[in-house]
Amino acid sequence: MLRDITTIVFDVLGTLVDEPGGLRTAIEEAGGSPRDSDDLLGVWQRHIEGEQRRIARGERDYVASGILDREAATRVAQAAGITDAATIDRLATVTQRLPAWPDSRDGVARLAARFRVLGLSNADPESLHALGEHAGLPWHGALSADTVEAYKPSPRVYRLAVEESGGDPGSVLMVAAHAWDLRGAGVVGMRTAYVPRPAGDPPADTDAFDGRFPSLAELADELA
Q1: Would you give the end-to-end CA distance of the chain in angstroms?
Q2: Burial 125-138 (b: 16+ CB within 10 A, else e)
Q3: How far apart are CA 130 and CA 150, in angstroms?
Q4: Whole-prediction pTM value?
Q5: By CB atoms within 10 Å of each CB, which of 46, 95, 139, 209 scores lowest?
């Protein structure tokens, strides 16, 4: 049971907003062929995930997500034959314009009426602020992993959220569509709740999260 929660911390990319769908749309708008959009999306995702892993292993110095996004946009443009500089510039800032999932605004609003609600994202502060406004997410604030110069699932990122929430991890609930994200939160003692999304990371049989909910509406009902 989820009791004694004071702060709810949401993963943002993939959990509150449709990251792969928004990326695919932006790639097609930039000139990528719809029949190739899945492959081009893979180019983007492999670069971001690979570089974040390299940073975590100490093989590359930390750089903010905006730099990784620009690198990914350049790779996608090369693969798709896109040469217009302004188009590539716009593609590089797509994280600022991802669409919210249908239940995100209402779910966050319901929870924010009773709890402190924060976003916690690997997106840099500029992208995260713009995304919150674009997607209409009524949270009380958003924390960027850039503050601690690390990417989730580094424990430093989750400790940032705990410190911002008063220092007691047992009173902080991490909500995500990615099981790896919840495992990272659990390492520092945060409570955990899984909400499925089409491109999320489902729990394994061995995962013991505090709750699993079909949507944010069911999560809000549980915490009401």
Answers
A1: 12
A2: bbbbbebbebbebb
A3: 21
A4: 0.96
A5: 46
